[in-house]
Design goal:
This protein has about 300 residues and is α/β, with parallel strands linked by helices. Helices cover about 40% and strands about 20% of the residues. It is built from 11 helices and 11 strands. The strands form 3 sheets. It has a 7-stranded parallel beta sheet. Strands 5-6 form a two-stranded antiparallel sheet. A two-stranded antiparallel ribbon has the order 10-11. α1 links the parallel β1 and β2. It starts with a strand and ends in a 5-residue tail after the last helix. It holds the Pfam family PHP. GO terms for molecular function: histidinol-phosphatase activity. It catalyses: L-histidinol phosphate + H2O = L-histidinol + phosphate. This is Histidinol-phosphatase.
């Protein structure tokens, strides 16, 4: 029973992703997905948080379209949830931003909508600078941390800790995204004592809050040797009794289930035999203010693998 808990479309993340949301869902059904979490990016609210492709119009215009686009996404997600209920279990969420602590109340406001089942807790910025966009912006983030990658990692995990405290997300997105643009993404972070202390602190908090980490295969298509999180972090998480869900973090049809075979082999090597997802009741949103219930459900890795050979 294949699934993803983290996905995007070009319809609601233009410039960042491609393809219409409905076409992506149809493709997911075709390749055997039984559950799909829809998690378009939440709006941003300040000019400094716009991406380069969004700066082709005045910033007030670029920012003004984002909240209505989010509302349109939720409406379309509800429609698709009902339209395809007999073919795929669609769970509606969004990917939260925690660019700075002022985003916390914004996230919780969006999450209060009764059609929102969950959100991914993510950090994509440090010192308000994107750390996964390109090498130049990553270098700017390093400079803002005093010119030290080690310090930037510490700052990233400190901001992640603030996010966890404020939001208590049920799923934490790409836990170690900070390594994507690093000069040495495969380094053993346990050698940086301050970084490792922060990592173990954050993992312990996620476990205490009942959250999951995603095994996020997007790291593989972006050239990293291991999914998020890397082996050292994954082993520490498992030693705490932590649970994994599965995500392709797709940004269009071509990326749906990309590198799932490799990611499952990685999980096998860690001794992971069970993945976790949600079962939603009712399966589609109803009118009114009643929120659906989510039940945590298990999927054996062996069952998941049937459609995704190594």
């Amino acid at each position: 029973m294949a699934f993803t808990m983290h996905s995007h479309s070009g319809q609601f993340c233009p410039g960042h992703a491609v393809d219409q949301l409905e076409d992506i869902i149809k493709h997911a059904i075709k390749i055997g997905y039984k559950t799909m979490g829809l998690t378009e990016h939440m709006p941003r609210y300040e000019e400094q948080d716009l991406y380069p492709e969004e700066r082709t119009v005045p910033p007030e215009e670029a920012l003004a379209v984002l909240p209505p686009r989010h509302a349109a996404y939720l409406a379309e997600a509800k429609r698709l949830q009902a339209a395809y209920a007999d073919q795929i279990h669609l769970i509606v969420g969004f990917e939260a931003e925690f660019i700075r602590p002022s985003y916390g109340p914004r996230v919780l406001d969006l999450a209060a909508d009764p059609c929102v089942d969950y959100f991914i807790g993510s950090v994509h910025h440090v010192h308000s600078i994107p750390i996964d966009f390109d090498a130049a912006t990553y270098a700017s983030a390093v400079a803002a941390s005093g010119g030290s990658e080690e310090r930037l990692y510490e700052d990233y995990y400190d901001l992640q800790h603030a996010m966890l405290q404020a939001l208590k997300p049920r799923i934490v997105g790409h836990f170690d995204l900070i390594r994507l643009m690093s000069a040495e993404p495969g380094r053993d972070v346990r050698k940086w004592a301050g970084v490792w202390d922060r990592i173990t602190r954050n993992l312990a908090l996620i476990k205490e809050q009942g959250g999951w980490l995603e095994c996020n295969s997007a790291a593989l298509r972006k050239g990293l040797a291991e999914p998020y999180p890397c082996r050292e972090i994954a082993e520490e998480w498992l030693s705490m009794g932590g649970k994994f869900t599965m995500s392709d973090d797709s940004h269009g049809i071509v990326q749906v289930a990309t590198n799932y075979g490799r990611a499952l082999t990685y999980l096998d090597s860690l001794g992971v035999d069970t993945l976790w997802t949600f079962s939603r009741t009712p399966s589609a949103s109803t009118e009114g203010d009643q929120r659906a219930s989510l039940e945590e459900t298990t999927v054996p890795v062996s069952t998941f693998r049937e459609g995704f050979p190594a």
